[in-house]
Each structure stands twice: as structure tokens, then as C-alpha cells.
Design brief:
The structure is a single chain. By secondary structure, the chain is mostly helical. The protein has a domain of about 70 residues: Zinc/RING finger domain, C3HC4 (zinc finger) (Herpes Virus-1), CATH 3.30.40.10. Helices cover about 40% and strands about 10% of the residues. The chain has four helices and three strands; from the N terminus they run ααβαββα. A three-stranded antiparallel beta sheet has the order 1-2-3. The N and C termini lie far apart (about 105 Å).
């Protein structure tokens, strides 16, 4: 009798464990949430809004004769004549404004060549000594 009761309890335990494992695997994983901490020292934040707005904007219809490229490297969408583009002054690459502005707010580098757009043009302000 004890053998039958022990066997029955073992079967119940295995079925219950299987049910719990299957139920746990069907629940969606928790979304990733990055830790709340300040940026590490030495990391360069994105470009400030005033600098970003100083970069030239133009319609694709006026630039396609000169540039020749027809696809935004960020969203991979083709440029249309009515699209507003922003050109990065340090490297000359251009992108949709709606694509490159968020990028530059978080990272000061060009999405293509990674040239930093944050370098101030110190050549204009250098004073040579005697």
C-alpha cells in the first residue's frame, strides 16, 4: 500500500512540476530597463540643440543635382523631392532631419564615417603670441 501511495505522490509531483514549467515558459519576458545611472566620465554627450539647429537644412529637390545619393543611410528610405535634409558640416554627409536629429542628440558622431561633429572650430579663435 505504501508503494502505491508513494508512486501516486511521485506522479502528482511530476505533473505539477511540468505544469509549472510550461506555464512559466509562456509568460513574456520582462522588458529590458537600463540602470538609472549617470554617463561614465569621459563620454561625450550628444550635440546640444543650438548647435544642431545651426547645421544647414535643405530640400532634397535642390540638392539631388549636386549630391547624387538617393537613400538615407539611417532609415534606408529613398529621398523624395519634398524631404528636408540636414548636412553635417564636418564631413558633408546628409540625412533626413527626422532621422539624424535624434541620432545627434544622443551621439555627436556622423552615422556613416563616425567623424565627431562636436569639435569646435578653434582655428578661428587662436591668438598667436609674439
Amino acid at each position: 500500500m505504501a508503494f502505491i501511495l508513494g508512486f501516486f505522490m511521485l506522479v502528482v509531483l511530476i505533473v505539477l512540476a511540468s505544469y509549472m514549467c510550461i506555464r512559466a515558459s509562456r509568460q513574456p519576458p520582462l522588458p529590458y530597463r537600463p540602470p538609472d545611472r549617470p554617463p561614465a566620465p569621459g563620454l561625450v554627450p550628444g550635440i546640444d540643440e543650438a548647435t544642431l539647429l545651426s547645421y544647414p537644412k535643405f530640400l532634397y529637390s535642390s540638392a539631388k543635382r549636386e549630391q547624387g545619393a538617393g537613400t538615407c543611410p539611417i532609415c534606408l528610405g529613398d529621398y523624395r523631392d519634398s524631404d528636408v535634409l540636414r548636412m553635417l558640416p564636418d564631413c558633408g554627409h546628409f540625412f533626413h532631419v527626422k532621422c539624424v536629429d535624434p541620432w545627434l542628440r544622443s551621439s555627436p558622431t556622423c552615422p556613416i564615417c563616425r567623424k565627431c561633429q562636436c569639435v569646435e572650430r578653434a582655428q578661428d579663435s587662436v591668438v598667436l603670441g609674439n
